[in-house]
Amino acid sequence: MAATTINNLPDVILSNICAAISDTRARNSLSLVNRKFHSLERATRTSITLRGNARYLHMIPICFRSVTDLDISNLSPWGHPLLTLPTPSDPLLLAHRLRQAFPLTTSLTIYCRIPLTLEILLPQWPGLRHVKLVRWHQRLQAPLGAEFIPLFEHCECLKSIDLSNFYFWTEDLPPVLRAYPEKSANLTCLNLLTTSFTEGFKAQEIREITAACPSLNKLLVACTFDPRYIGFVNDETLSAIATNCPKLTLLHLVDTSSLANERGDPDSDGFTAEDASVSREGLIQLFSGLPLLEELVLDVCKNVRDSGPVLEVLKSKCSSLKVLKLGQFHGVCLAIGWQLDGVSLCGGLESLSIKNCGDLSDMGSVAIGRGCRRLIKFELEGCKNVTVDGLRTMAALRRETLVEMKISCCKQLGAVASCKALDLVRDRIEKLHIDCVWDGLELTESSESRVRSLDLNELNDEDDELGLRKKRKFCLPEGGNWHLQIKENGVCCKTWKGLKCLSIWIEVGQLLTPLPIVGLDDCLVLEEIRIKMEGDSRGRQKPSDRALGLSCLTRYPQLTKLRLEFGETIGYALTAPGGETDLALWDRFFFNGIGNLRLNELDYWPAQDRDVNQRSLTLPASGLIAQCLTLRKLIIHGTAHEHFMMFFTRMPNVRDVQLREDYYPAPADDSTTEMREDSHRRFEDAMNRRRIAD
Fold first, then answer.
1. Are residues 516 and 553 in the same domain?
2. Are residues 56 and 197 in the same domain?
3. Percentage, residues of the chain above pLDDT 70
4. Does a structural domain hold residue 492?
5. Band (51; pLDDT cuts 50, 70, 90)
6. CA proximity to 66, closest of 85, 86, 94, 41
7. Sign of dihedral through CA atoms 412, 418, 423, 428?
8. Quick one: pLDDT at residue 669?
9. What percent of the chain has pLDDT over 90?
10. Whether residue 535 is found in the same domain as residue 679
């Protein structure tokens, strides 16, 4: 009797297996098993991102006939007008070729630098339901709303528009929505969290947008809550949102100052000089009008005081709420005694982020751990009063559910304290962010404070209902501060068994080498590390050490992905003044040792010179990156000279290299960039001529 193999399974079952796999690399590997698997994988893939040069029409794949989600925003040369590159005489040729290759497309992502792109591409797929526009270049001179008219003219089934990475004027959108009332009324998702905004949408514009789109269930808006600005968001605006869009399940209202993504002052007390013009009554009216809300982000950046009672209303009015992020809200949880209050009463939350809360204490964080029993993700940013003891207790209380933590810009929670606070849940955490502030490196694990036990059986019935009464012990130091000591099988966790992604912040000039010492030495499954560096290197002496310390990451055997976000590091891109260190020398310090890592993917945001708006790959950086011989994918979010890019053609395994000027404002024309259209063509031709073993 012949042996039965997986090839004997019916095609229907194999197709379902292929369709259930979402990871792109896993699907690519699956397609290499045999011809049958190859054809099934191609037939079941529904999402694809095209790379390569737009002028090579014959290289557009035609075997992915089931694709519904098409992303062509990263076609090369990146950021150039798409339909003017391959065949200037007939811009329709590329559009027709894409339609033939992907006839079922309903979701499209495209870099739209000129309006002609939408005029030609959108008619190819009249059934489009979702469109995401991308543009980091400045807006062209055109009448208000002219760039959005093709969306409503050609997309009869349009449901969702994403403008989060598209630079435009806020005045462009409302007139178009009013001009097409029927199609505007059909929209269910509108993402207007455009990161390049300086002031965001005004209150009147938000009212007009929500009035034109009553069917929205997802709304994300960049705005301003600062009462010193014209058109700031107030109670009237919140009321209009709730009245006009009662079906909302997701609402993000984010102040534009928060979108700058710059680190706050850790020495700040968390309070700003001005209060937001948002009252308790206004928030209660917002919550009462949105009973279906499941995700809420209110990043106000101006004081919202005494918010605890309002958040208690949130629990009753929005019973389905699972994700909550609050920025500059104070009094979120006072935790007087054992009584739960404020946000700790929102027991259905799965993700909670508290940012710049000036009065959140250890007792408050413990109350959150007691009340939010389903918490999977917890973020703490800019909360100066929370210490290692309070966070340690909170994390241990949520040991069974917590898998993602972010601890940033908290004065008393540097790298050592953050890792110590999580030592009881290390085996549970899968994703972690900490700040590389090396305070307390001299402390050792033996410097534990004396504690006295508190039996949980002595707690009242309310706490017992919250699931606290277990065979564990709370501990209170004799000084009265919170501490928690929980042992599983008698031993505290020492290994990060599940940590797959580590994100860290570090100041320019600091070293990375102490990272394993603080407690991150045993991460057996760590796959990705993200390093964000900020600071001004001007006027700062380069450290005496030869390297930042990337070599210390070799202790993580599964590390394959590295993101180096140095875009907020400022320096001299060109000739530095006498006695100063330019960015080329800093890059030598940053990248020394990267060749020792066995990376597959590298995303790199070069440091910038704001005076000349330049973020460029330097000679030392390109030479040292080229020493990383296992690298397969390299994305540089900046510019580079052509001869620097040629270093990468000598790397034996690299298959995908691209320059993306995805920052605002992107260089407007070739005269301001090092890599021009011809430079891209020569580099890509050199890459394509290489032979790759696999």
1. yes
2. no
3. 89
4. no
5. confident
6. 41
7. positive
8. 63
9. 61
10. yes
DSSP 261-323: -----TTS-S--SSB-S--HHHHHHHHHH-TT--EEEEEEEEEE-S-HHHHHHHHHH-TT--E
Residue 534 bridge partners (DSSP): 507, 568
Give the residue from 426, 441, 459 where a domain finishes. 426
The partner residues of 130 in beta bridges, in order of sequence, read: 107, 160
Could you give the CA distance from residue 82 to residue 72 in angstroms, rounded to a whole number?
Answer: 9
- Is 250 found in the same domain as 178? no
Residue that finishes a domain, picked among 426, 456, 489? 426
Do 397 and 543 reside in the same domain of the chain?
no
Phi, psi of 48 (to 5 degrees): -150, 145
Q: In this structure, are residues 60 and 98 in contact, taking their beta carbons and an 8 Å threshold?
A: yes
Asked if 137 contacts 665 with a C-beta cutoff of 8 angstroms, the reply is yes
Average pLDDT score, the chain: 86
Do 196 and 664 contact (CB within 8 A), yes or no? yes
Residue 366 included in any domain:
yes
Distance between CA 300 and CA 276 in Å, rounded?
7
| DSSP H or E segment with residue 604 | strand 601-605
Do 206 and 229 lie in one domain? The reply is yes
Asked whether residue 459 carries a pLDDT value surpassing 70, the answer given is no
**Three-state SS for 97?**
helix
582-620: per-residue pLDDT in tens? 899 999 999 999 999 999 999 999 999 988 888 999 999
Whether 52 and 141 map to the same domain: the answer is yes
Residue 17 belongs to a domain: no
Q: How many CB atoms lie within 10 A of CB 297?
A: 18
Range of the domain at 335: 193-426
Q: Are 155 and 202 members of one domain?
A: no
Which range, of 86-95, 385-394, 412-421, averages the lowest pLDDT? 86-95
- Determine the pLDDT at residue 463: 47
Ranking 59-73, 74-88, 96-110, 301-315 by mean pLDDT, the lowest is 74-88
Length of the chain: 694
Apex 646 CA angle, 643 and 650, nearest 5:
150
How many Cβ atoms sit within 10 Å of the Cβ of residue 262? 9
Q: Mean pLDDT lowest for which of 129-133, 412-416, 481-485?
A: 481-485
In the predicted model, is pLDDT for residue 447 greater than 50? no
Total tally of structural domains belonging to the chain: 3
Q: Is residue 158 part of a domain?
A: yes
